[in-house]
Specification:
205 residues, alpha+beta, 5 helices, elongated
């Protein structure tokens, strides 16, 4: 979504009170648009994926216990594993998620954002044990158009990265542009590591 450009020449003749009201309206519009077009769809996507992953995982476990009709069981189990694998394609391994978060930080800098804070928090495994959350506390400063462009890049990622707890400070003019301080929580969702096969004990001579 392309944001309208400010005409600084016309702003000089506008009273100070109207300038402040204009800035408040701009910031409010950005927050409302971001919540409606980025936060809500991402949250709905994550909830849907979590429910689907749990459902498929439960079905796989149930079918594994039913061994009477082996041929049908093998075919059905294989199909469920294929569906589960497709869902998990959007959940990268931990190493890839760490690299993805680093790329997002670099992207913000390239777009012109001043990264004031980029602090990873403790990872947390979901109760379903199907994915892990990797949260990062972020604080950036820059033009509102640049911040919106950064969030748009995050929204279009093939991997699931959620943005939450967005807080925007007061807008100010720096070098003929509107600058806003934005604080938010960035969370990458990664696949749980596959269990390692037990190593057989060495045979005694």
């Amino acid at each position: 979504m392309e944001l309208p450009k400010l005409n600084l020449e016309s702003l000089r003749t506008v009273p100070a009170l109207q300038k402040i009201l204009m800035l408040v309206l701009i910031v409010g519009g950005i927050v409302a648009a971001f919540y409606n077009f980025v936060v809500m769809p991402k949250n709905q996507m994550i909830e849907s994926l979590q429910v689907e992953l749990v459902r498929l995982d439960n079905e796989i476990q149930t079918l594994t216990l039913k061994v009477k009709h082996l041929d049908e069981l093998i075919a059905a189990n294989k199909q469920l594993e294929i569906e589960l694998a497709k869902k998990k394609e959007r959940l990268p391994p931990q190493e890839e998620a760490v690299m993805l978060l680093k790329q997002l930080s670099d992207l913000g800098v390239r777009l012109g954002l001043d990264i004031k804070l980029w602090r990873p928090s403790s990872q947390a495994e979901d109760p379903s044990k199907l994915f892990i959350r990797m949260p990062v506390s972020v604080e950036v400063e820059g033009g509102y158009h640049t911040a919106a462009l950064f969030f748009d890049h995050i929204n279009k990622l093939p991997r699931i990265v959620n943005v939450s707890d967005v807080r925007m400070g007061s807008a100010k003019i720096e070098r003929s542009r509107v600058v806003i301080q934005t604080v938010f929580e960035l969370t990458a969702f990664v696949a749980t590591p596959e269990p390692k096969a037990p190593v057989p004990a060495a045979k005694a001579k």
